[in-house]
UniProtKB/TrEMBL annotation, chains A, B:
Record's catalysed reaction(s): Exonucleolytic cleavage of poly(A) to 5'-AMP
Keyword Magnesium among UniProt keywords: no
Boundaries of every Poly(A)-specific ribonuclease RNA-binding domain copy: 396-473
Annotated keywords: Cytoplasm, Exonuclease, Hydrolase, Membrane, Metal-binding, Nuclease, Nucleus, RNA-binding, Transmembrane, Transmembrane helix
Taxon lineage: Eukaryota, Metazoa, Chordata, Craniata, Vertebrata
Organism encoding this protein: Dicentrarchus labrax (European seabass)
GO molecular function annotation: metal ion binding; poly(A)-specific ribonuclease activity; RNA binding
Protein name as annotated: Poly(A)-specific ribonuclease PARN
Transmembrane listed as a keyword: yes
Any one Gene Ontology BP term: siRNA 3'-end processing
Enzyme class name: hydrolase
Comp. bias intervals (Acidic residues): 512-522
Homology family: Belongs to the CAF1 family.
Length: 578, 578
């Protein structure tokens, strides 16, 4: 289903119910560009640490626009033994809400735009009919503005009232001072005489109506109008929050979200529809290692993956498009339409999950998205093109790979790859990963050659070689120095989360008969339980600094709290299968 | 005529001939945004100097994309007594030429995009079918790359040939050393024996054909192929230069170019299709004052202007759309389509020019675009929203307006406009022009109040007041200091122009009977005549620094040389009429 500004409001309930009934969701995004700085090979260096990769993407990718968001919901139908799918294709554009609302600027990269154009992307749907959105901060600001305007209006009325009352009292005071006997006279006026006075006073613009009558009719009318106005304002606000409401619904649903190479999708989703991305401090991410099927699938492009997962030992999953939804045909590839990509992503996930079932005794043909078998892959974001760290782990420590065969080399900027090959020609095959114009990682094929290379370089003037360990240590020291000089770490523009961390842990629970172990593991990954329910980034960081043992806990919970992902949205990259 | 990548090559000759035959050209551009920094009111402060305005636009507007270029050519038909027009609407997009060509990033401003969308703008025509373009530097780089590749290919062939020849000589040398008698033997071999040897040598992969026969056929074929390849390369290069060729044609035509609020259009055109914009140094622009019709037309929006110029004392001009071109109907407004805006702009110019004719004795109903009457308006770029400087003069000194009623006020950033009104409440009506959060210009209604205001503020702590003269002096001093510390002024990334300044001055000559005076004036505005024919920015600047008297000359010529506009494209803003 194509969703633009035109049919967004009418489609919202369909989207909500699709999310609510789904077993899992697949997502995909299309962006206006990838990198506003380094080229793709520098952006995705093969020896990046997850922190480096995250920091680079945050710095160089977040000014682009996620302008098409694909969502495909998968619901398993037991009677038909197949998944019923509902694909959505949202076109998103930051249309300014009013004159005072933020006028978003975003970058377009001509190569990315040209690529999408060659795939038949409809830019008019984005720019002319894209659904608006607001992040938390903008939403809060807008609500505040509306509130303020309402108060100002009330205050203006009040002050008008005060001025008026003051004036009347002043006049009566003057009359009392100069013509005290008038009061007695007015008091004894006949009904007719009073009416005459009222009429006379009309010249001043006073509508001198009997008070009781006025208040009755006006009050009701006023209340009705105020109620209407309030409702209208609320609706306008909701319209402005726009597509972010879909993301909130996904977040609140607690459903499993599946993506392909989804680090950038997740980052854009948070950045655009939630809040600015946090800086990654030391120890904010830890790495561990999980590998499967790597030998079986070598090409990770979505199209290739889909083809391979149709063949043995995998099985092509049975799916059916729900009534009223556009039925995709995998024979007619519509790759790089976000909705189609999300659909294919979901299919791949089902194939992979079902394959896991073949290892059980007796083998199972259908494995649910909530199965314990899939659980090890939760909250792992695949890291594209990193040689030895397949994914970034959101909820736990990650692998620190052995990189003792890697050298960090700095050299004059005139050097090219061939110079490095020549320099290390004595050490057999090498692999060069460029960092920037004057530095690169060089991986030797044999670790025992490292010391020899180090010794050889001792007297070199034009270049310098460090082991990977020395390089990491140096970076660490630089960071600590930086930390000592700039103490404002906690105040770096990071927005305090408005969302509270739900304390009902394990909303995404595994299949019932395996619940016991889950209890333990969910506690292990969710220290929000022993916090106050709301853990902000700063609190978590401070906590982490106070108690080294609890550091990892505090930190990753804070991140999840910010994303409102802690137990609600569990993110899986099936790419970590690879 | 709509021109996209699809019909660009076929339309090029039509465009060229339309430009060639035209009396004058009207242009207009549509952009992906206006400002990536300050809001529009700060970007167009009412008391900007032309230099400040230019610098601000250069800093905050050049990262947007000019993606629709409107060109309307006007040719006067004596027999019909009306203009024949040819409107073009070019869609422009920096589609990367190949993998190594620059991957342009540009900003989009959501309010601008939303505005264009509301006007029915077709973004698919830009992003899917926009004509590519290259500026001079990119073009030169691409030509260099192609040349290099060709040389590399030739070198590779040559080195292959050297290696081969070397090997053959080495073999013959060995034979000569070890079996000298073999030579005599070969010398006396029969034809049949030789053939046998040739065949035997075939096992080594040598295709041992009679030399003469081979060279004849291969040489012709090789030449033909090389020629074909060269032509193909040349065509690919021309395709890559793309829309810039239209701009080059306009520039070379020497035709009068008319625009509406065209400062931004001119800057974008130069920046996108020629070269990076120069920095404005001290004294690079001078200001003088020319005012006309100001009381007659108050609203300068294009739609309003067009309406007013249909009524008395102006006359609606007679125009006819050339055959095969889309005929615009001014009743059905298509404003903010660049081609239509260019068309309306041209109409307005004709109305205004003809109005000038009504002052002649006897009055003339038709005034040519080359008339002496229009000449005072040449090379004046209208400055939007500046109170007392209507335009930026490209070819001469500009007005330095009397601003002795203006105060420069600095204050805490909590201050709002109301605080300034309160502060100056004793001095009657004021006008506030914000500069940034902590400073603004305050114009008093009476100049004699300035000294009183200055005296009053002497002991103030929270704010500070300077006269406009003091403010300008301070800025000047700051700049001089900066100039002393940073001596790299001439090397600030400015690209040396590849274009030579044509020495045939006055290509845009006035009507014949007024030619004598023109000779003088064109000399006055074209010191390239006494230079070497090619004046670069640096040369001009150095010249300006050496000879203070010649400064203004050197400077504006250099600018024009860079734009390749000096005598070729004469730019008029009819807005300076206002």
């Amino acid at each position: 289903m194509e969703v633009t500004r035109r049919n967004y409001k009418d489609s919202l309930n369909t989207v909500y119910s699709a999310i609510e009934e789904a077993d899992f969701l697949a997502i995909d995004g299309e962006f206006s560009g990838i990198s506003d700085g380094p080229n793709v090979s520098a952006l995705t260096n093969g020896l990046d640490t997850p922190e480096e990769r995250y920091t680079k993407l945050k710095k160089h990718s977040m000014d682009f626009l996620l302008f098409q968001f694909g969502l495909c919901t998968f619901k398993y139908d037991q009677t038909k033994s197949k998944y019923i799918i509902k694909p959505f294709n949202f076109y998103v554009f930051p249309k300014p809400f009013n004159r005072t609302s933020p006028d978003i600027k975003f970058i377009c990269q001509s190569s990315s735009i040209d690529f999408l154009a060659s795939q038949g992307f409809d830019f008019n749907k984005v720019f002319c009919n894209g659904i608006p959105y607001l992040n938390q901060e903008e939403e809060a600001q807008l609500r505040e503005q509306t509130e303020e305007r309402r108060n100002q209006h009330a205050n203006a009325l009040l002050s008008k009232c005060h001025t008026y009352t003051g004036f009347v009292f002043f006049v009566f005071f003057l009359i009392y001072i100069f013509f005290p006997h008038l009061y007695l006279y007015v008091y004894f006026l006949t009904r007719f005489q009073r009416k005459l006075i009222y009429q006379t006073l009309n010249w001043k613009g006073f509508t001198w109506k009997p008070l009781k009558q006025k208040s009755k009719v006006d009050d009701e009318e006023r209340k009705r109008r105020e109620q209407q106005k309030l409702e209208r304002e609320q609706e306008e606000l909701n319209d402005a929050v726009g597509f972010s409401r879909v993301i909130h619904a996904i977040s609140k649903s607690g459903k499993l979200v599946v993506g392909h190479n989804m680090l950038l999708d997740v980052m854009h989703t948070i950045h655009q529809f939630y809040c600015p991305l946090p800086e990654m401090g030391v120890g904010l991410f830890f790495f561990f290692f999980f590998l499967m099927f790597q030998e079986m699938i070598t090409n990770t492009s979505l199209a290739e993956l889909e083809k391979q997962l149709k063949e043995g030992p995998f099985k092509s999953p049975q799916v059916e498009t729900a009534e009223g939804f556009h039925s995709y045909d995998t024979a007619q590839e519509q790759l790089h339409e976000a909705g189609y990509d999300a659909y294919i992503t979901g299919l791949c996930f089902v194939s992979m999950a079902n394959y896991l079932g073949s290892f059980l005794t007796p083998p199972k043909a259908y494995i649910s998205a909530r199965s314990k078998l899939v659980e090890p892959f939760f909250n792992k974001l695949f890291l594209m093109r990193i040689i030895d760290i397949p994914y970034l782990n959101i909820t736990g420590p990650d692998l620190q790979p052995k990189r003792d065969h890697v050298l960090y080399v700095t050299f004059p900027k005139e050097w090219k790859t061939s110079d490095l090959y020549q320099l290390f020609s004595a050490f057999g095959n090498i692999q060069v990963s460029w960092i920037d114009d004057t530095s690169a990682f060089v991986s030797l094929s044999q670790t025992d050659q490292v010391q020899i290379a180090m010794n050889t370089s001792r007297y070199a003037e034009s270049y310098r070689i460090q082991t990977y360990a020395e390089y990491i240590q140096g970076k660490q020291q630089d960071k600590e120095k930086l930390g000592q000089t700039a103490k404002t770490w906690g105040d770096d523009g990071w927005v305090k989360s408005h969302y509270t961390s739900s304390t009902t842990s394990g909303r995404l629970s595994p299949i019932p008969d395996e619940e016991e172990e889950e209890e333990e593991s969910s506690e292990g990954t969710n220290p929000a339980n022993d916090a106050e329910g709301t853990v902000t980034w700063q609190q978590a960081t401070r906590k982490g600094q106070k108690n080294k043992k609890k550091k990892s806990k505090g930190v990753f919970v804070s991140l999840l709290t910010l994303l409102n992902l802690p137990e609600t949205v569990q993110t899986v990259t099936w790419c970590s299968f690879l």
